Amino acid sequence: MIVTLRAVQPADLPIFFVQQLDAEAVTMAAFSARDHAAFMQHWAKILGDDSLIKYCILADGQVAGNIVCFDWMEHKEVGYWLGKAYWGRGIATQALIALLQLVHERPLCAEVASHNVASLRVLQKCGFEIVDEIKDFTDENGEPIIGVMLKLG
Question: What is the number of structural domains in the chain?
Answer without folding.
Answer: 1
